[in-house]
Amino acid sequence: MLIIKAQDYNDMSRKAARFIAAQVQLKPNSVLGLATGSTPLGTYRELIRFHRQEELSFCDVRTVNLDEYYGLPSTHPQSYCHYMQEHLFNHIDITPGNTHIPDGLADDPNAYGREYDDLIVCMGGIDVQLLGIGSKGHIAFNEPSQVFSTQTRLVDLNETTIEDNARFFESEEEVPRQAISMGMKSIMAAKRILILASGNGKAEAVKAMVEGPVDPMVPASILQLHPDVILIADATALSLLAQ
Ligand code: PGA
Questions:
Q1: Residues 189-201: pLDDT tens digits?
Q2: Hey, what domains does the chain have and what are their CATH numbers?
Q3: Which end of the chain is more exposed for a tag (fewer CB within 10 A), N or C?
Q4: How many CB atoms lie within 10 A of CB 117?
Q5: Distance of CA 88 to CAs 5, 53, 66, 105, 148, Å?
Q6: How far apart are CA 187 and CA 125, in angstroms?
């Protein structure tokens, strides 16, 4: 894993956006795996700036998102579909039909998950997968568990994730208890992975991901087995690393 130290959140975001922009310039029809949450917001802001000021075009880019809350319609203000429109897609020249986000209202979410994995294969696989990391080491909504989950499927969110995400809702009760999450198989099949971490709250998860054993109780630790992972993190997120 290549570790790039950023000075702070904005520096992390700039570095991540430069990396994605270079990918899009080199391969205009790249498949980008996209993430939600607070971590990638600055990266998306920078990409929008590159589009406006540096004519970076996304018109041939294809995207697949990691996850969606189960039970929320795409129009719900806290849905990840809404998040992507508001924070990226509405501000760039991406072709709407080229964007893919799990359907939070799928009737049979596990069958739907298998179709989503098949879709990623049909697109030629993910060129760059952008990831955040949860405070307990989850990636997408793959929560700590006894085994690594492979398929895209319906998952139960754990208490820490519900508490962490309550800040986006009026109250903790409103946070959906389930989500459709991309599984480890599609994430690990990405050609490159770009994982971002910022702030004290991620320091323990980053340490466990980088220096701990590969253990499904720290889902991000599976990234040690991927040949091309870049971690861009600020000093506080890296503060517990031995090196
Ligand atoms: P955050 O979430 O970016 O909102 O901290 C990260 C994650 O849960 O993967």
A1: 999 999 999 999 9
A2: 2-197+213-233 (3.40.50.1360)
A3: C
A4: 20
A5: 25, 15, 15, 22, 30
A6: 10
What spacing in Å lies between the alpha carbon of 135 and ligand 1's midpoint?
A: 8
pLDDT tens string 71-96: 999 999 999 999 999 999 999 999 99
| Cβ count within 10 A of residue 58 | 24
Task: Compute and round to an integer the Cα radius of gyration of the chain.
Answer: 17
pLDDT above 90 for 180: yes
Q: Is 133 in the pocket of ligand 1 (CB under 6 A)?
A: yes
**H or E element in which residue 181 lies:** strand 178-181
> What is the CA(164)–ligand 1 centre distance, in A?
8
Q: Which of 151, 67, 132, 157 is nearest to 104 (CA)?
A: 67
DSSP assignment of 38-92 equals STTHHHHHHHHHHHHHH----TT-EEEESEEETT--TTSTTSHHHHHHHHTGGGS
| C-alpha closest to that of 153 among 203, 124, 197, 187 | 187
| Distance of alpha carbon 86 from alpha carbon 18, whole angstroms | 21
Tally of residues, the chain: 243
What mean pLDDT comes out for the span 136-151? 95
- Is the distance from the beta carbon of residue 37 to the nearest atom of ligand 1 less than 6 Å? yes
Confidence check: pLDDT of 225 > 80: yes
Mean pLDDT confidence for 61-69 = 98
Assess whether pLDDT exceeds 90 at residue 243.
no
Contacts of 108 (CB under 8 A, 6+ apart): none
In the prediction, which pLDDT does 116 show?
98
